[in-house]
Design goal:
The complex is a heterodimer. Chain A is of the alpha/beta class. Chain A has 12 helices and 14 strands. The longest helix of chain B has 26 residues, at 44-69. The chains are: A alpha/beta, B alpha/beta. The interface between A and B is large, with 46 and 44 residues.
Chain lengths: 327, 372
């Protein structure tokens, strides 16, 4: 056991991946000497060399496109996209090529490639550095889309993503990079909690809160506050957006009869819309209230002095929880 | 240097066959030429084989066009006019080299040994390419222009890491693709990592309806210089020159000298696809001009005039071409539609319980009609 910041846990997970498989390479902008703008790859080029940890030209489509070619020849590349808003130059490669090559080739080609994307706001950044584009990827068949919410998951999930034979879009909650948690760095990977499973991170019987990435901590904080008022909230860290572990979610909502979804992305056509629809389809007779969503407004991510108004917070979550009891 | 003088230092983009930089080993009239940098190392039998490739490819292309007109294919992208560029370059490859095609590279697929029927499966709508890319060393056809040039560079970067392996990569794209960001990023990455990749640009003059002059104000092969690697313009209708130049380019990239750009100056004699109507945007005169530079006629003229082949040989190739056309026609019309549930196959390598549930549900839905 070790107490690690989330960024450090990712760093250790990446180190393990590089150690355990010579086919693994890391590539991206500033991932080498600098160790990444968030230091997630700190020290890895020093220890594994420039062939394993590659500073690339500044071109996101080029990074993902060449990584696809490397994967076709048997390597297992991990691409770092520096910030969420910078992934779009690579979107064509991800959507039209990465997601479809296995299908196009009738299973003869596999593209085991991980794209790491720091996502979400709350760090007072300039434009394009605080976005939550996860639904744009979860909508694409052929991609696996996951988000870690704490250091322990970060350490395990990044290694599982690298071991996966499918392309994985790996979202990292950038404002949680410095938050520390206990990480069992000795636990064997093959016995770890599955990459694509959702996890109940707090049990409760009154209402189910669904969150992922940076919002999991908010949901837990909201649950702790609600407990003081005698309301027991169950919190599920969705973890895998695609494929979705809906069984864990529907089991919970069938018990509680109430559900609130939290994410930073705009509510309109956000991931919460899919969750709400599925829950309604499968738990209709168990629901005491409609599924409510807490998330961003239908505006571009605002300037940082306004982001506290845009982002979900404990009060907004508790307000939605209260509303589920008003039906 | 003034802006005006800069303009005068570059050749007009449509210099074409008159360009002194154009490498040509066989004139449109069938005369052999020598080039100091690009010797032709072929025996007579090999030249006859190239002729056979060209004729069979054209017959395949013609039959596929007819199959589309008769409703057996959804669409067909004709290779008519570009046979020499594709046969010449692909015949320079080793079996273990890797080729990345766009959607018109039927001649490359032919040389890689892909059965033509497998290509028809794509255009009939059976699948997105029926061959195993690893078996034939030919990546799937790529429809999105230029995207695969990056895959080729990445593949070459991976080859670079393999000790004692001097296999190379060739990637095919066109004059339109040369404007895509991905192609330019592929040039940057290939140069930066000194990747063993040959960029084979077939300049067929037209990106659907848009002429090459809209894509570039300098001859496309000259762009390589700006990225820091060599570029050569070859007569794309001259199969011998295409083979010799590609052979030299492959030697260059195999020996660790980094990427190489070949611009094969050719012409799309057909429509962009069977859905296109070139009469709306180009003059018939232009086509007539290029017919005089036909890639097959000049080889036939050379073989006949130099006594390397007789009438019997040409007749036997024609017979073989007709047999090929019969074979692919009967294969095409008898292709069954795939099983509906096959559309759920191969979305994920590691599987997806969510998708499995969708498949089960649709299977039950289909079965419900049977029970009624």
């Amino acid at each position: 056991m070790a107490t690690l910041a989330l960024a450090r846990a990712l760093n250790l997970g990446l180190r393990r991946a590089l150690e355990s498989d010579p086919r693994v390479v890391i590539m991206g902008e500033d991932v080498g000497k600098l160790g990444g703008v968030f230091r997630v790859t700190d020290g890895l080029q020093r220890d594994f060399g420039e062939d394993r940890v590659m500073d690339t030209p500044l071109a996101e489509s080029g990074i993902v496109g060449t990584a696809i070619g490397m994967a076709l020849r048997g390597l297992r590349p991990i691409c770092e996209i520096q910030f969420d808003g910078f992934v779009f130059p690579a979107y064509d490669q991800i959507v039209n090529q990465l997601a479809k090559l296995h299908y196009r080739s009738r299973g003869t080609l596999t593209v085991p490639l991980v794209i790491r994307i720091p996502f979400g706001g709350g760090i007072g950044a300039v434009e394009h550095h605080s976005e939550s584009p996860e639904a744009l990827f979860a909508h694409i068949p052929g991609l696996k889309v996951v988000a870690c919410g704490n250091a322990a998951d970060a350490y395990t999930m990044i290694q599982q993503a690298v071991a996966c034979d499918d392309p994985v879009i790996f979202f990292e909650p950038k404002r949680r990079y410095w938050e520390r948690a206990e990480v069992d760095t000795d636990a064997p990977l093959d016995q770890a909690f599955p990459l694509t499973a959702a996890r109940v991170v707090r049990e409760g019987r009154d209402v189910t809160l669904l969150a992922y990435g940076p919002s999991v901590k908010l949901a837990l904080d909201a649950a702790a506050a609600a407990a003081e008022e005698g309301r027991e909230i169950e919190v599920i860290d969705v973890r895998s957006l695609s494929p979705l572990d809906f069984h864990t979610i529907s089991s919970s909502v069938s018990r509680t009869g109430r559900c609130v979804v939290v994410h930073e992305a705009p509510v309109f056509l956000g991931f919460g819309a899919e969750l709400a629809a599925r829950i309604t389809e499968s738990c209709f007779y168990r629901l005491e209230a409609p599924v409510l969503r807490v998330g961003g407004f239908s505006i571009p991510y605002p300037p940082s002095r306004l982001e506290e108004h845009y982002l979900p917070d404990v009060d907004k979550i508790l307000d939605a929880v209260d509303r589920t009891f008003s039906y | 240097m003034t802006v005006d003088s800069l303009h005068h230092t570059v050749a007009p983009a449509d210099a074409g066959p008159a360009d002194p930089a154009l490498v040509q080993l066989l004139t449109p009239e069938g005369q052999r030429r020598e080039h100091p940098n690009f010797p032709l190392l072929l025996d007579d039998a090999a030249i006859r084989d190239l002729y056979r490739d060209l004729v069979l490819l054209r017959r395949f292309d013609t039959e596929a066009t007819a199959l589309q007109r008769q409703g057996e294919l959804g669409i067909w992208a004709q290779v008519l006019g570009q046979e020499a560029a594709q046969i010449g370059s692909a015949r320079a490859l080793r079996p273990t080299d890797m080729a990345f095609p766009t959607y018109r590279e039927h001649g490359v697929a032919w040389c890689r040994g892909v059965p033509p029927e497998k290509i028809l499966e794509l255009f009939r709508g059976i699948n997105f390419g029926g061959w195993n890319p690893l078996e034939f060393r030919l990546a799937p056809y790529t429809i999105v222009i230029g995207a695969h040039t990056l895959h080729a560079v990445g593949y070459a970067m991976a080859l670079q890491r393999e000790p004692h392996n001097d296999d190379a990569v060739i990637v095919y794209f066109g004059d339109g693709a040369a404007s895509e960001g991905d192609v330019n990023e592929a040039f940057v990455f290939a140069a930066s990592y000194n990747a063993p990749v040959v960029f084979f640009l077939q300049n067929n003059q037209w990106a659907i309806s848009v002429p090459e002059s809209r894509q570039s104000r300098i001859p496309l092969y000259q762009r390589a210089k700006g990225f820091g690697f060599p570029g050569v313009r070859v007569d794309g209708n001259d199969v011998l020159a295409c083979l010799a130049v590609t052979d030299a380019a492959l030697q260059h990239v195999r020996s660790g000298q980094g990427p190489f750009l070949i611009e094969a100056f050719t012409y799309r004699m057909g429509a962009h696809t069977t859905s296109d109507d070139p009469t709306r945007y180009r003059l018939a005169d232009e086509l007539e001009k290029w017919k005089l530079r036909d890639p097959i006629e000049r080889v036939k003229a050379y073989l006949s005039r130099s006594g390397l082949a007789d009438a019997e040989f040409f007749a036997s190739v024609d017979v073989e071409a007709e047999a090929l056309a019969d074979r692919i026609r009967s294969a095409c019309v008898s292709m069954p539609d795939p099983d509906p549930l096959a559309m759920f196959d191969h979305v994920y390598a590691d599987g997806s319980p969510m998708l499995d549930a969708e498949r089960r549900s649709y299977a039950e839905y289909l079965a419900s009609f049977g029970e009624a």
